[in-house]
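Model it.
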Amino acid sequence: MIGRLGSLQTRITALALVISGVAGMMGGAILVNRLLSAIQEQQGQLAMAVARTIAQVEDVRSSVGRPDGAAVIQPIAERMRIEARVDYVVVIDMDRVRFSSALPERLGTVFEGGDEGPALAQQAYLSRAAGVRGPSVRAFVPILSPDGLEQVGVAVVGVLEPQPIELLRAVQSDVLLAFTVGLSTALVGAWILARSIRRQMFGLEPREIARLLEERVAIASSIREGLIAIDREGRITLVNDQARQMLGIGEEVLRRPVREVIPNSRLPVITETGIAEHDQPMRIGAHLLVANRVPIRVGGEIVGAVATFRYRSDVERLAEELTSVQQFVKALRASNHEWLNKLHTIAGLLQLGRYERAKEYIFAETEGQQEAARFIARNFADARISGLLLGKVARARELGVELRIDDESRLTALNGALKGIDVVGIAGNLLENAIEAAASTRDGTKPLVRCRIRGGGHRLTIDVVDNGPGIPDELLPGILAGELSTKGAGRGMGLALVRREVDLVGGRLAVDSRPGSTRFSVVLDEEVSVGRPD
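Modeled.
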């Protein structure tokens, strides 16, 4: 019934009302029962004391059994009854004939209570029985002859037991007051508790919370990204199907510490620092992933953290077309500048009438471009790398730098973890830095950059050498960490990105720099790589 009453606040109030009512009635019943037991015990003690007193009165002891004994015993018994405030005092002889009674008309009649037998055998005791005037507690005490040698009768003193309803009427005002105070306190407490619970649940009802939970589970299961969440103590509270598949875990991980499931997880660090991490590379087994980790805040307090991650290959597939387009645009832009300069040169030669020289210049440039394009297309299986190299060749020419690609350079398809490595990013950043460094040389030497790329399967090596001014030893650690740049604000992060990409698969990045010669060497070998888990 309570479940159909409506809101949580109404349910809690109704439940408190029911509990308080039941508790009040049970408390009242227990109180009346305890009072009744205590009164019965007191009545028994009083009846026994009065009976013993009557049994010791000399006139009673000497008059029991005599024909005129009732005339002596009745006044004494009545006086004792009135003074002790008991309900009746009966004195009987050994034949159970009454010598006193609260009802004078019963004098001389036989006492037939049914529980007087032991008293006729000189035993004193209490008995509860239904007497002439109702249920009572009766005390039986033997009466001995004046010389104490034989029993001449029994003194019976009875006190009527109070009825529970009468006792309840006597204490009803106190019980009612206590019941009212208790019920009022329960209702106020239930109202305060309901408001507090509702505030903590953002004003939502349990059925609304249940629906939100079902929606959360459905959403978590439907997204293609892996998702795992922990609480403040680092225990896993949510993991979707995609995350289970990617991490190779099952349902039993819920409520377990995340460190037991993912030993090097950074989620506990996020709960401590409260600093989010976006688009961070990670490796699990042979798979490269991209992860986002953010703290979960409720009311401004961090209560946990959540990580979402997906295969890096999926991200790269989405970005591949854009990357290719960007490289193509860069190549076209550089080529446009380069060919404008060449057209100006050809136009000048034609204006000077140097027709043969202009023809030779055109053939030389065309042949050089075609030879470079054929070499790159033949030796590099990835179209993105081919486009990058062609663009960098044009970019170098635009800046007056010669970019030489080693004749032994070759790159076939990469496998395993290296398949997801951003080779374009690594090679592109190294070449761009080298070209800009060579272009900045001021010692009269012809700017030169040499590049050698070899790889395929599970191994890749990249060597880039320039004859620029070099990198001071004291600046190199800060540049590689992304904390320092020599190119101004918003630039100079290329080498830091290269280092992060290399570290992702446990590769090696070596730098040898001095004035006039700077070499960057990258070695990626999956056979000895050690990945970094989430």
